[in-house]
Amino acid sequence: MRTRPNVLAGFGSLVWLFLVGLPLYVMLIATFQSRADYAANGPLAFPERFTLDNYVNDLNEGFGQYFLNTVIVTVSVVGIVLLLVPPLSYAIVRSRGRTTTAVFRLFLLGLAIPSQAVIVPMFYVISQAGLYDNLIGVILPTAAFAMPVCALILTGVMRDITPDLYEAMAIDGASSRRIFLQLVVPLSRSGLSTVVVFSALQAWNGFLFPLVLTQSAETKVITMGLYDFQTEHGVDIPGLLAAVVLSMLPILLVYLFARRALVQGLMGVGGK
Amino acid sequence: MTTATAPAVDSEQTERTAPPRGRSASEVGRPGFAWAAPAAVFFGLFAIVPLALVVVLSFAGWDGLGPPRFVGLDNWKKLLDDPVMLESLWLSVLLTGLGVLVQTPIALLLGVWAAGHQRNRAVLSAVYFVPLLLSVTAVSVLWRAVLDPNFGVPSQARWLFGDGNLLGTQAGAIGVLAFVGAWQFTPLHTLIYQGAARAIPKVLYQAAEIDGAGRYRRFFHITLPQLRNSIITSTILMVVGGLTTFDTVLILTQGGPGTDTTISAYYMYQKAFKSFDFGAGAAVALLLVLVATVISLVLVRLSGYDRMRSTMEGL
Protein backbone atom coordinates (compact mmCIF):
# COMPACT_ATOMS: atom_id res chain seq x y z
CA MET A 1 0.00 0.00 0.00
CA ARG A 2 1.10 3.59 -0.54
CA THR A 3 2.29 5.18 2.64
CA ARG A 4 1.97 8.93 2.42
CA PRO A 5 2.50 10.52 5.82
CA ASN A 6 -0.85 11.21 7.46
CA VAL A 7 -0.32 14.87 8.33
CA LEU A 8 -3.63 15.46 10.11
CA ALA A 9 -3.31 12.44 12.39
CA GLY A 10 0.36 13.16 13.04
CA PHE A 11 -0.48 16.72 14.09
CA GLY A 12 -3.35 15.51 16.27
CA SER A 13 -1.13 12.99 17.97
CA LEU A 14 1.36 15.74 18.88
CA VAL A 15 -1.40 17.94 20.31
CA TRP A 16 -2.53 15.04 22.48
CA LEU A 17 1.07 14.39 23.53
CA PHE A 18 1.24 18.01 24.70
CA LEU A 19 -1.99 17.68 26.69
CA VAL A 20 -0.82 14.46 28.33
CA GLY A 21 2.68 15.72 28.97
CA LEU A 22 2.00 19.21 30.33
CA PRO A 23 0.42 18.28 33.68
CA LEU A 24 2.93 15.46 34.18
CA TYR A 25 5.78 17.93 33.57
CA VAL A 26 4.25 20.50 35.95
CA MET A 27 3.83 17.77 38.54
CA LEU A 28 7.38 16.45 38.33
CA ILE A 29 9.20 19.78 38.44
CA ALA A 30 6.98 21.08 41.26
CA THR A 31 7.88 18.16 43.51
CA PHE A 32 11.61 18.97 43.34
CA GLN A 33 11.21 22.59 44.50
CA SER A 34 10.55 24.19 47.84
CA ARG A 35 7.14 25.79 48.27
CA ALA A 36 8.65 29.27 48.14
CA ASP A 37 10.60 28.54 44.96
CA TYR A 38 7.53 27.05 43.30
CA ALA A 39 5.45 30.12 44.12
CA ALA A 40 8.20 32.42 42.85
CA ASN A 41 9.10 30.51 39.67
CA GLY A 42 5.57 29.66 38.60
CA PRO A 43 4.45 26.19 37.52
CA LEU A 44 6.25 26.04 34.17
CA ALA A 45 9.81 27.23 34.85
CA PHE A 46 12.51 24.62 35.29
CA PRO A 47 13.79 24.77 38.88
CA GLU A 48 17.29 26.02 39.71
CA ARG A 49 17.58 24.40 43.12
CA PHE A 50 16.55 20.77 43.42
CA THR A 51 15.33 19.33 46.69
CA LEU A 52 13.84 16.02 47.82
CA ASP A 53 12.31 17.58 50.95
CA ASN A 54 8.75 17.23 49.65
CA TYR A 55 9.10 13.47 49.34
CA VAL A 56 10.86 13.12 52.69
CA ASN A 57 8.20 15.23 54.44
CA ASP A 58 5.35 13.27 52.89
CA LEU A 59 6.86 9.97 53.98
CA ASN A 60 7.39 11.32 57.50
CA GLU A 61 3.87 12.68 57.69
CA GLY A 62 2.12 9.36 57.34
CA PHE A 63 2.50 8.42 53.69
CA GLY A 64 4.87 5.62 54.67
CA GLN A 65 2.06 4.11 56.74
CA TYR A 66 -0.56 4.71 54.03
CA PHE A 67 1.75 3.09 51.52
CA LEU A 68 2.07 0.03 53.74
CA ASN A 69 -1.71 -0.14 54.22
CA THR A 70 -2.23 0.01 50.48
CA VAL A 71 0.27 -2.80 49.97
CA ILE A 72 -1.59 -4.90 52.56
CA VAL A 73 -4.93 -4.26 50.85
CA THR A 74 -3.53 -4.95 47.37
CA VAL A 75 -1.77 -8.17 48.30
CA SER A 76 -4.82 -9.46 50.16
CA VAL A 77 -7.20 -8.64 47.33
CA VAL A 78 -4.96 -10.35 44.78
CA GLY A 79 -4.63 -13.32 47.14
CA ILE A 80 -8.39 -13.72 47.59
CA VAL A 81 -9.01 -13.39 43.86
CA LEU A 82 -6.31 -15.97 43.02
CA LEU A 83 -7.68 -18.35 45.63
CA LEU A 84 -11.33 -18.19 44.58
CA VAL A 85 -11.57 -17.33 40.89
CA PRO A 86 -9.46 -20.02 39.14
CA PRO A 87 -11.46 -22.92 40.68
CA LEU A 88 -14.65 -21.02 39.85
CA SER A 89 -13.68 -20.56 36.20
CA TYR A 90 -12.58 -24.20 36.01
CA ALA A 91 -15.99 -25.30 37.26
CA ILE A 92 -17.78 -22.95 34.86
CA VAL A 93 -15.86 -24.33 31.90
CA ARG A 94 -15.89 -28.02 32.79
CA SER A 95 -18.82 -28.70 35.09
CA ARG A 96 -22.07 -30.02 33.67
CA GLY A 97 -24.22 -28.93 36.60
CA ARG A 98 -26.98 -26.35 36.20
CA THR A 99 -26.01 -24.61 39.44
CA THR A 100 -22.62 -23.72 38.00
CA THR A 101 -24.22 -22.12 34.98
CA ALA A 102 -26.46 -20.13 37.31
CA VAL A 103 -23.40 -18.98 39.26
CA PHE A 104 -21.79 -17.78 36.03
CA ARG A 105 -24.92 -15.76 35.24
CA LEU A 106 -24.65 -14.19 38.67
CA PHE A 107 -21.10 -13.08 37.94
CA LEU A 108 -22.12 -11.70 34.54
CA LEU A 109 -24.82 -9.68 36.32
CA GLY A 110 -22.06 -8.51 38.65
CA LEU A 111 -20.20 -6.96 35.69
CA ALA A 112 -22.97 -4.40 35.46
CA ILE A 113 -23.01 -3.35 39.12
CA PRO A 114 -20.95 -0.22 39.79
CA SER A 115 -19.57 0.02 43.33
CA GLN A 116 -21.33 3.39 43.76
CA ALA A 117 -24.64 1.58 43.52
CA VAL A 118 -24.05 -0.58 46.59
CA ILE A 119 -21.99 1.72 48.77
CA VAL A 120 -24.85 2.53 51.17
CA PRO A 121 -25.77 -1.10 51.95
CA MET A 122 -22.05 -1.98 51.94
CA PHE A 123 -21.59 0.49 54.77
CA TYR A 124 -24.47 -1.24 56.58
CA VAL A 125 -23.11 -4.77 56.00
CA ILE A 126 -19.55 -3.88 56.99
CA SER A 127 -20.62 -1.98 60.13
CA GLN A 128 -22.90 -4.84 61.17
CA ALA A 129 -19.99 -7.25 60.70
CA GLY A 130 -17.92 -5.09 63.04
CA LEU A 131 -15.38 -4.37 60.28
CA TYR A 132 -15.86 -0.61 60.02
CA ASP A 133 -12.52 1.26 60.02
CA ASN A 134 -10.69 -2.02 59.56
CA LEU A 135 -8.60 -2.87 56.49
CA ILE A 136 -10.41 -6.21 56.22
CA GLY A 137 -13.61 -4.24 55.66
CA VAL A 138 -11.97 -2.61 52.63
CA ILE A 139 -10.35 -5.79 51.33
CA LEU A 140 -13.51 -7.94 51.21
CA PRO A 141 -15.72 -5.71 49.02
CA THR A 142 -12.78 -4.66 46.83
CA ALA A 143 -12.01 -8.33 46.11
CA ALA A 144 -15.68 -9.10 45.46
CA PHE A 145 -15.98 -6.28 42.93
CA ALA A 146 -12.81 -7.36 41.11
CA MET A 147 -14.13 -10.91 40.74
CA PRO A 148 -16.59 -10.66 37.81
CA VAL A 149 -14.01 -9.28 35.37
CA CYS A 150 -11.42 -11.79 36.58
CA ALA A 151 -13.90 -14.65 36.19
CA LEU A 152 -14.67 -13.51 32.66
CA ILE A 153 -10.98 -13.31 31.72
CA LEU A 154 -10.09 -16.71 33.20
CA THR A 155 -13.17 -18.44 31.84
CA GLY A 156 -12.20 -17.22 28.38
CA VAL A 157 -8.66 -18.53 28.74
CA MET A 158 -9.75 -21.90 30.12
CA ARG A 159 -12.29 -22.36 27.31
CA ASP A 160 -9.37 -22.19 24.90
CA ILE A 161 -7.79 -25.34 26.37
CA THR A 162 -8.70 -28.13 23.96
CA PRO A 163 -11.16 -30.70 25.37
CA ASP A 164 -8.83 -33.48 24.16
CA LEU A 165 -6.33 -32.55 26.85
CA TYR A 166 -8.96 -32.79 29.59
CA GLU A 167 -10.18 -36.11 28.26
CA ALA A 168 -6.69 -37.55 27.95
CA MET A 169 -6.09 -36.83 31.62
CA ALA A 170 -9.51 -38.11 32.62
CA ILE A 171 -8.90 -41.40 30.83
CA ASP A 172 -5.71 -41.74 32.84
CA GLY A 173 -7.98 -41.53 35.87
CA ALA A 174 -6.86 -38.09 37.00
CA SER A 175 -9.04 -36.38 39.60
CA SER A 176 -10.48 -32.90 39.09
CA ARG A 177 -7.87 -31.66 41.49
CA ARG A 178 -5.00 -33.12 39.50
CA ILE A 179 -6.39 -31.87 36.20
CA PHE A 180 -6.77 -28.42 37.72
CA LEU A 181 -3.26 -28.27 39.13
CA GLN A 182 -1.36 -29.99 36.32
CA LEU A 183 -3.29 -28.90 33.25
CA VAL A 184 -5.55 -25.90 33.84
CA VAL A 185 -3.31 -23.73 36.00
CA PRO A 186 -0.15 -24.07 33.87
CA LEU A 187 -2.07 -23.42 30.65
CA SER A 188 -3.86 -20.37 32.09
CA ARG A 189 -0.72 -18.50 33.03
CA SER A 190 -1.33 -15.53 30.72
CA GLY A 191 -4.88 -15.15 32.03
CA LEU A 192 -3.67 -15.43 35.61
CA SER A 193 -1.15 -12.62 35.14
CA THR A 194 -3.85 -10.42 33.62
CA VAL A 195 -6.06 -11.18 36.59
CA VAL A 196 -3.28 -10.33 39.04
CA VAL A 197 -2.63 -7.00 37.34
CA PHE A 198 -6.30 -6.12 37.06
CA SER A 199 -7.17 -6.88 40.68
CA ALA A 200 -3.99 -5.22 41.94
CA LEU A 201 -4.85 -2.04 40.01
CA GLN A 202 -8.40 -2.07 41.38
CA ALA A 203 -7.08 -2.41 44.92
CA TRP A 204 -4.21 0.07 44.59
CA ASN A 205 -6.34 2.77 42.97
CA GLY A 206 -9.53 2.10 44.95
CA PHE A 207 -11.09 5.14 46.58
CA LEU A 208 -14.81 4.79 47.28
CA PHE A 209 -14.69 1.80 49.64
CA PRO A 210 -11.86 3.24 51.77
CA LEU A 211 -13.59 6.65 51.77
CA VAL A 212 -16.80 5.26 53.19
CA LEU A 213 -15.55 2.31 55.23
CA THR A 214 -12.52 3.73 57.05
CA GLN A 215 -11.79 6.89 58.98
CA SER A 216 -8.67 6.75 61.18
CA ALA A 217 -5.03 7.37 60.24
CA GLU A 218 -4.12 3.73 61.00
CA THR A 219 -6.39 2.43 58.23
CA LYS A 220 -5.74 5.13 55.66
CA VAL A 221 -4.78 3.91 52.20
CA ILE A 222 -2.79 6.07 49.83
CA THR A 223 -5.73 7.43 47.80
CA MET A 224 -7.37 8.54 51.06
CA GLY A 225 -4.04 10.06 52.10
CA LEU A 226 -4.06 12.13 48.89
CA TYR A 227 -7.65 13.21 49.40
CA ASP A 228 -7.07 14.28 53.01
CA PHE A 229 -3.81 16.04 52.11
CA GLN A 230 -5.71 17.97 49.45
CA THR A 231 -8.49 18.95 51.89
CA GLU A 232 -6.15 19.88 54.74
CA HIS A 233 -3.10 21.44 53.06
CA GLY A 234 -4.26 21.98 49.48
CA VAL A 235 -2.06 25.11 49.22
CA ASP A 236 1.17 23.12 49.64
CA ILE A 237 1.19 22.18 45.97
CA PRO A 238 4.76 20.72 45.82
CA GLY A 239 4.06 18.54 48.87
CA LEU A 240 0.71 17.45 47.47
CA LEU A 241 2.13 16.59 44.06
CA ALA A 242 5.02 14.66 45.62
CA ALA A 243 2.37 12.54 47.34
CA VAL A 244 0.68 12.02 43.97
CA VAL A 245 4.00 10.84 42.49
CA LEU A 246 4.54 8.48 45.44
CA SER A 247 1.08 7.00 44.93
CA MET A 248 1.74 6.22 41.26
CA LEU A 249 5.36 5.10 41.54
CA PRO A 250 4.75 1.34 41.92
CA ILE A 251 2.35 1.25 38.98
CA LEU A 252 4.76 3.16 36.76
CA LEU A 253 7.52 0.71 37.69
CA VAL A 254 5.32 -2.23 36.73
CA TYR A 255 4.45 -0.41 33.51
CA LEU A 256 8.14 -0.12 32.64
CA PHE A 257 8.89 -3.79 33.24
CA ALA A 258 5.66 -5.65 32.48
CA ARG A 259 3.90 -3.45 29.97
CA ARG A 260 2.07 -6.26 28.20
CA ALA A 261 0.46 -7.75 31.28
CA LEU A 262 -0.48 -4.28 32.47
CA VAL A 263 -2.12 -3.29 29.20
CA GLN A 264 -4.11 -6.53 29.23
CA GLY A 265 -5.09 -5.86 32.82
CA LEU A 266 -6.33 -2.44 31.75
CA MET A 267 -8.39 -3.96 28.98
CA GLY A 268 -9.91 -5.92 31.83
CA VAL A 269 -10.88 -2.54 33.28
CA GLY A 270 -12.53 -1.94 29.94
CA GLY A 271 -14.64 -5.02 30.42
CA LYS A 272 -16.10 -3.49 33.57
CA MET B 1 2.77 -17.11 41.02
CA THR B 2 0.85 -19.94 39.49
CA THR B 3 1.80 -22.26 42.32
CA ALA B 4 0.23 -19.78 44.73
CA THR B 5 -3.14 -21.03 43.59
CA ALA B 6 -2.38 -24.56 44.71
CA PRO B 7 -3.72 -24.29 48.27
CA ALA B 8 -6.95 -22.92 46.82
CA VAL B 9 -8.50 -26.31 46.93
CA ASP B 10 -8.35 -28.04 50.24
CA SER B 11 -8.36 -31.80 50.25
CA GLU B 12 -11.76 -32.02 51.93
CA GLN B 13 -13.32 -30.25 48.98
CA THR B 14 -11.87 -32.49 46.31
CA GLU B 15 -12.98 -35.59 48.15
CA ARG B 16 -16.54 -34.34 48.03
CA THR B 17 -16.30 -33.59 44.32
CA ALA B 18 -14.61 -36.84 43.33
CA PRO B 19 -17.04 -38.80 41.18
CA PRO B 20 -18.53 -41.92 42.74
CA ARG B 21 -17.56 -45.28 41.22
CA GLY B 22 -19.61 -46.45 38.30
CA ARG B 23 -20.20 -43.10 36.57
CA SER B 24 -19.49 -42.94 32.84
CA ALA B 25 -15.99 -42.10 31.70
CA SER B 26 -16.93 -38.61 30.50
CA GLU B 27 -17.96 -37.68 34.03
CA VAL B 28 -14.58 -38.62 35.44
CA GLY B 29 -12.49 -35.60 36.34
CA ARG B 30 -15.36 -33.18 35.90
CA PRO B 31 -15.39 -30.60 38.69
CA GLY B 32 -18.56 -30.36 40.71
CA PHE B 33 -20.35 -27.33 42.10
CA ALA B 34 -18.07 -27.37 45.15
CA TRP B 35 -15.34 -25.81 43.00
CA ALA B 36 -17.52 -22.80 42.28
CA ALA B 37 -19.09 -22.58 45.74
CA PRO B 38 -16.44 -20.57 47.65
CA ALA B 39 -16.35 -17.84 45.00
CA ALA B 40 -20.13 -17.86 44.68
CA VAL B 41 -20.65 -17.48 48.44
CA PHE B 42 -18.04 -14.74 48.71
CA PHE B 43 -19.44 -12.80 45.77
CA GLY B 44 -22.98 -13.32 46.99
CA LEU B 45 -22.16 -11.92 50.44
CA PHE B 46 -20.23 -8.86 49.32
CA ALA B 47 -21.90 -7.95 46.02
CA ILE B 48 -25.31 -9.55 45.54
CA VAL B 49 -26.57 -9.13 49.12
CA PRO B 50 -25.67 -5.41 49.14
CA LEU B 51 -27.38 -5.02 45.76
CA ALA B 52 -30.55 -6.59 47.18
CA LEU B 53 -30.22 -4.44 50.31
CA VAL B 54 -30.05 -1.24 48.27
CA VAL B 55 -33.60 -1.97 47.14
CA VAL B 56 -34.71 -2.69 50.72
CA LEU B 57 -32.97 0.38 52.14
CA SER B 58 -34.56 2.64 49.54
CA PHE B 59 -37.87 1.94 51.33
CA ALA B 60 -36.36 2.46 54.77
CA GLY B 61 -35.38 5.30 57.02
CA TRP B 62 -31.93 4.87 58.52
CA ASP B 63 -29.60 7.41 60.15
CA GLY B 64 -26.64 5.04 60.37
CA LEU B 65 -27.01 4.41 64.11
CA GLY B 66 -30.22 2.63 65.11
CA PRO B 67 -31.86 -0.16 63.12
CA PRO B 68 -33.43 0.83 59.76
CA ARG B 69 -37.24 1.15 59.83
CA PHE B 70 -39.70 0.69 56.99
CA VAL B 71 -41.10 3.97 55.64
CA GLY B 72 -42.78 2.81 52.44
CA LEU B 73 -42.49 5.19 49.52
CA ASP B 74 -41.41 8.22 51.58
CA ASN B 75 -37.85 8.36 50.22
CA TRP B 76 -39.06 8.10 46.64
CA LYS B 77 -41.79 10.73 47.11
CA LYS B 78 -39.28 13.16 48.61
CA LEU B 79 -36.76 12.55 45.84
CA LEU B 80 -39.24 13.12 43.04
CA ASP B 81 -40.17 16.48 44.62
CA ASP B 82 -36.54 17.40 45.15
CA PRO B 83 -35.30 19.96 42.60
CA VAL B 84 -31.64 19.16 43.38
CA MET B 85 -32.28 15.47 42.61
CA LEU B 86 -33.82 16.23 39.22
CA GLU B 87 -31.06 18.72 38.44
CA SER B 88 -28.45 16.13 39.45
CA LEU B 89 -29.88 13.57 37.03
CA TRP B 90 -29.80 16.14 34.24
CA LEU B 91 -26.21 17.09 35.13
CA SER B 92 -25.17 13.41 35.14
CA VAL B 93 -26.64 12.91 31.70
CA LEU B 94 -25.11 16.18 30.44
CA LEU B 95 -21.64 15.30 31.73
CA THR B 96 -21.91 11.78 30.30
CA GLY B 97 -23.03 13.13 26.92
CA LEU B 98 -20.17 15.63 26.90
CA GLY B 99 -17.76 12.82 27.73
CA VAL B 100 -18.97 10.73 24.79
CA LEU B 101 -18.83 13.71 22.41
CA VAL B 102 -15.31 14.70 23.44
CA GLN B 103 -13.74 11.26 23.82
CA THR B 104 -15.20 9.33 20.88
CA PRO B 105 -13.68 11.36 18.01
CA ILE B 106 -10.28 11.70 19.74
CA ALA B 107 -10.15 8.01 20.67
CA LEU B 108 -11.22 6.99 17.15
CA LEU B 109 -8.54 9.07 15.47
CA LEU B 110 -5.79 8.15 17.91
CA GLY B 111 -6.81 4.49 17.91
CA VAL B 112 -6.80 4.15 14.13
CA TRP B 113 -3.55 6.09 13.99
CA ALA B 114 -1.94 3.93 16.69
CA ALA B 115 -3.04 0.77 14.87
CA GLY B 116 -0.18 1.38 12.43
CA HIS B 117 2.93 -0.55 13.36
CA GLN B 118 5.42 2.33 13.02
CA ARG B 119 7.93 2.67 15.83
CA ASN B 120 7.12 6.31 16.70
CA ARG B 121 3.44 5.44 17.01
CA ALA B 122 4.22 2.65 19.46
CA VAL B 123 6.36 4.97 21.59
CA LEU B 124 3.75 7.73 21.67
CA SER B 125 0.99 5.22 22.45
CA ALA B 126 2.99 4.10 25.46
CA VAL B 127 3.10 7.69 26.71
CA TYR B 128 -0.61 8.29 26.05
CA PHE B 129 -1.29 5.41 28.33
CA VAL B 130 0.15 6.90 31.49
CA PRO B 131 -3.03 8.75 32.63
CA LEU B 132 -4.97 5.50 32.58
CA LEU B 133 -2.56 3.92 35.04
CA LEU B 134 -3.20 6.51 37.71
CA SER B 135 -6.01 6.44 40.22
CA VAL B 136 -8.91 8.79 39.56
CA THR B 137 -8.02 10.33 42.92
CA ALA B 138 -4.43 11.08 41.85
CA VAL B 139 -5.59 12.50 38.52
CA SER B 140 -8.17 14.76 40.16
CA VAL B 141 -5.69 16.01 42.76
CA LEU B 142 -3.10 16.58 40.03
CA TRP B 143 -5.45 18.62 37.84
CA ARG B 144 -6.73 20.62 40.75
CA ALA B 145 -3.15 21.65 41.49
CA VAL B 146 -2.33 22.31 37.82
CA LEU B 147 -5.48 24.45 37.41
CA ASP B 148 -5.02 26.33 40.69
CA PRO B 149 -5.94 29.97 39.91
CA ASN B 150 -3.00 31.40 41.88
CA PHE B 151 -0.19 28.86 41.58
CA GLY B 152 -1.20 26.78 38.57
CA VAL B 153 -0.97 27.07 34.81
CA PRO B 154 -3.85 29.60 34.45
CA SER B 155 -1.73 32.15 36.34
CA GLN B 156 0.79 31.94 33.49
CA ALA B 157 -1.69 32.39 30.63
CA ARG B 158 -4.14 35.12 31.58
CA TRP B 159 -4.84 35.77 27.88
CA LEU B 160 -6.34 32.31 27.67
CA PHE B 161 -7.88 31.72 31.08
CA GLY B 162 -9.03 35.22 32.17
CA ASP B 163 -9.05 35.43 35.98
CA GLY B 164 -8.01 31.79 36.01
CA ASN B 165 -10.75 30.57 38.35
CA LEU B 166 -12.02 27.87 35.98
CA LEU B 167 -14.01 26.09 38.68
CA GLY B 168 -15.81 29.29 39.70
CA THR B 169 -18.60 29.11 37.13
CA GLN B 170 -20.95 26.29 36.21
CA ALA B 171 -19.85 26.17 32.58
CA GLY B 172 -16.18 26.26 33.58
CA ALA B 173 -16.58 23.56 36.23
CA ILE B 174 -18.49 21.22 33.91
CA GLY B 175 -15.91 21.84 31.20
CA VAL B 176 -13.06 20.97 33.58
CA LEU B 177 -14.83 17.79 34.77
CA ALA B 178 -15.42 16.65 31.18
CA PHE B 179 -11.85 17.51 30.22
CA VAL B 180 -10.25 15.70 33.17
CA GLY B 181 -12.42 12.64 32.48
CA ALA B 182 -11.34 12.69 28.84
CA TRP B 183 -7.70 13.18 29.79
CA GLN B 184 -7.76 10.04 31.86
CA PHE B 185 -10.10 7.72 29.95
CA THR B 186 -9.51 8.50 26.27
CA PRO B 187 -6.55 6.05 26.25
CA LEU B 188 -8.85 3.19 27.28
CA HIS B 189 -11.09 3.82 24.28
CA THR B 190 -8.07 4.42 22.05
CA LEU B 191 -6.93 0.96 23.03
CA ILE B 192 -10.30 -0.55 22.10
CA TYR B 193 -10.22 1.12 18.68
CA GLN B 194 -6.58 0.26 18.12
CA GLY B 195 -7.26 -3.43 18.65
CA ALA B 196 -10.36 -3.36 16.46
CA ALA B 197 -8.66 -1.38 13.67
CA ARG B 198 -5.84 -3.92 13.54
CA ALA B 199 -8.42 -6.67 13.04
CA ILE B 200 -9.92 -5.09 9.90
CA PRO B 201 -9.02 -7.33 6.95
CA LYS B 202 -6.29 -5.73 4.81
CA VAL B 203 -8.01 -6.98 1.66
CA LEU B 204 -10.75 -4.36 2.10
CA TYR B 205 -8.20 -1.56 1.92
CA GLN B 206 -6.42 -3.14 -1.02
CA ALA B 207 -9.67 -3.37 -2.94
CA ALA B 208 -10.51 0.27 -2.15
CA GLU B 209 -7.03 1.29 -3.20
CA ILE B 210 -7.49 -0.36 -6.58
CA ASP B 211 -10.77 1.50 -6.96
CA GLY B 212 -8.85 4.72 -6.30
CA ALA B 213 -10.33 5.62 -2.90
CA GLY B 214 -8.28 8.19 -0.97
CA ARG B 215 -7.39 8.16 2.70
CA TYR B 216 -10.54 9.95 3.88
CA ARG B 217 -12.88 7.85 1.80
CA ARG B 218 -11.18 4.72 3.10
CA PHE B 219 -11.64 5.99 6.67
CA PHE B 220 -15.33 6.82 6.29
CA HIS B 221 -16.33 3.90 4.08
CA ILE B 222 -14.21 1.08 5.47
CA THR B 223 -12.67 1.86 8.85
CA LEU B 224 -15.68 3.53 10.47
CA PRO B 225 -18.29 0.92 9.44
CA GLN B 226 -15.91 -1.88 10.44
CA LEU B 227 -15.49 -0.34 13.89
CA ARG B 228 -19.25 -0.24 14.53
CA ASN B 229 -19.27 -2.86 17.27
CA SER B 230 -16.31 -1.25 19.03
CA ILE B 231 -18.01 2.15 18.91
CA ILE B 232 -21.01 0.67 20.71
CA THR B 233 -18.90 -1.13 23.31
CA SER B 234 -16.87 1.97 23.96
CA THR B 235 -19.96 4.19 24.18
CA ILE B 236 -21.62 1.89 26.71
CA LEU B 237 -18.45 1.94 28.82
CA MET B 238 -18.44 5.74 28.62
CA VAL B 239 -22.11 5.94 29.63
CA VAL B 240 -21.72 3.68 32.65
CA GLY B 241 -18.44 5.35 33.61
CA GLY B 242 -19.86 8.83 33.12
CA LEU B 243 -23.00 8.24 35.15
CA THR B 244 -21.00 6.84 38.05
CA THR B 245 -18.39 9.61 38.05
CA PHE B 246 -17.78 10.46 41.66
CA ASP B 247 -14.15 10.93 42.77
CA THR B 248 -13.53 13.68 40.21
CA VAL B 249 -16.48 15.71 41.46
CA LEU B 250 -15.67 15.17 45.14
CA ILE B 251 -12.09 16.34 44.69
CA LEU B 252 -12.38 19.01 42.00
CA THR B 253 -15.67 20.80 42.71
CA GLN B 254 -17.44 19.29 45.76
CA GLY B 255 -20.56 19.59 43.62
CA GLY B 256 -20.15 23.35 43.36
CA PRO B 257 -20.28 26.19 42.75
CA GLY B 258 -23.46 25.84 44.83
CA THR B 259 -25.07 22.70 43.47
CA ASP B 260 -23.99 23.46 39.90
CA THR B 261 -22.03 20.21 39.45
CA THR B 262 -23.89 18.06 41.99
CA ILE B 263 -24.34 15.00 39.77
CA SER B 264 -26.39 12.06 41.04
CA ALA B 265 -23.53 9.88 42.27
CA TYR B 266 -22.21 12.78 44.34
CA TYR B 267 -25.71 13.65 45.58
CA MET B 268 -26.10 10.07 46.74
CA TYR B 269 -22.86 10.35 48.74
CA GLN B 270 -23.98 13.66 50.25
CA LYS B 271 -27.42 12.35 51.20
CA ALA B 272 -26.08 9.19 52.80
CA PHE B 273 -22.73 10.10 54.29
CA LYS B 274 -23.07 13.87 54.91
CA SER B 275 -26.77 14.26 55.79
CA PHE B 276 -26.95 10.70 57.22
CA ASP B 277 -30.17 10.03 55.32
CA PHE B 278 -29.12 6.56 54.14
CA GLY B 279 -32.58 5.63 52.84
CA ALA B 280 -32.57 8.58 50.45
CA GLY B 281 -29.00 7.74 49.43
CA ALA B 282 -30.03 4.18 48.59
CA ALA B 283 -32.95 5.47 46.50
CA VAL B 284 -30.65 7.79 44.52
CA ALA B 285 -28.23 4.89 43.95
CA LEU B 286 -31.01 2.65 42.69
CA LEU B 287 -32.33 5.38 40.39
CA LEU B 288 -28.84 5.83 38.97
CA VAL B 289 -28.44 2.11 38.25
CA LEU B 290 -31.84 2.07 36.54
CA VAL B 291 -30.96 5.07 34.36
CA ALA B 292 -27.60 3.53 33.38
CA THR B 293 -29.22 0.20 32.54
CA VAL B 294 -31.97 1.80 30.46
CA ILE B 295 -29.53 3.94 28.48
CA SER B 296 -27.25 0.95 27.82
CA LEU B 297 -30.19 -1.21 26.70
CA VAL B 298 -31.46 1.55 24.40
CA LEU B 299 -28.00 1.90 22.89
CA VAL B 300 -27.79 -1.83 22.29
CA ARG B 301 -31.27 -1.88 20.72
CA LEU B 302 -30.82 1.19 18.54
CA SER B 303 -27.51 0.02 17.19
CA GLY B 304 -28.66 -3.50 16.40
CA TYR B 305 -25.76 -4.78 18.49
CA ASP B 306 -28.04 -7.37 20.09
CA ARG B 307 -28.60 -9.00 16.71
CA MET B 308 -24.84 -9.57 16.64
CA ARG B 309 -24.30 -8.68 13.02
CA SER B 310 -20.75 -9.53 12.19
CA THR B 311 -18.57 -7.01 10.38
CA MET B 312 -17.13 -10.03 8.56
CA GLU B 313 -20.31 -10.57 6.55
CA GLY B 314 -19.75 -10.86 2.80
CA LEU B 315 -16.07 -11.66 3.17
From TrEMBL, chain A:
Transmembrane regions listed in the UniProt entry: 7-28, 66-85, 106-126, 138-158, 179-204, 237-258
Main location: membrane
Gene Ontology process terms (BP): transmembrane transport
Keywords, ordered alphabetically: Cell membrane, Membrane, Transmembrane, Transmembrane helix, Transport
Organism superkingdom: Bacteria
Annotated Gene3D superfamilies: MetI-like
GO cellular component terms, A-Z: plasma membrane
Domain ABC transmembrane type-1: 67-258
UniProt subcellular location: Cell membrane
Xref: PROSITE patterns: ABC_TM1
A matching Pfam family: BPD_transp_1
Membrane protein topology class: Multi-pass membrane protein
Classification via InterPro entries: MetI-like, MetI-like_sf
Family indicated by similarity: Belongs to the binding-protein-dependent transport system permease family.
PANTHER family noted in UniProt: ABC TRANSPORTER PERMEASE PROTEIN MG189-RELATED (PTHR43744:SF12), ABC TRANSPORTER PERMEASE PROTEIN MG189-RELATED-RELATED (PTHR43744)
Protein name, UniProt field: Xylobiose transport system permease protein
Native organism taxonomy: Bacteria, Bacillati, Actinomycetota, Actinomycetes, Kitasatosporales
UniProtKB/TrEMBL annotation, chain B:
Entry's transmembrane regions: 33-60, 89-114, 126-146, 166-185, 231-252, 278-300
Subcellular location: Cell membrane
Membrane topology: Multi-pass membrane protein
Any single biological process term in GO: transmembrane transport
One cellular component term from this protein's GO annotations in UniProt: plasma membrane
InterPro entries in UniProt: ABC_transporter_permease, MetI-like, MetI-like_sf
UniProt cross-references to CDD domains, sorted A to Z: TM_PBP2
Residue stretches making up the ABC transmembrane type-1 domain: 89-299
Record keywords: Cell membrane, Membrane, Transmembrane, Transmembrane helix, Transport
One Pfam family this sequence matches: BPD_transp_1
Family as reported in the entry's similarity comment: Belongs to the binding-protein-dependent transport system permease family.
Protein name: Xylobiose transport system permease protein
Species of the source: Streptomyces wuyuanensis
Taxon lineage: Bacteria, Bacillati, Actinomycetota, Actinomycetes, Kitasatosporales
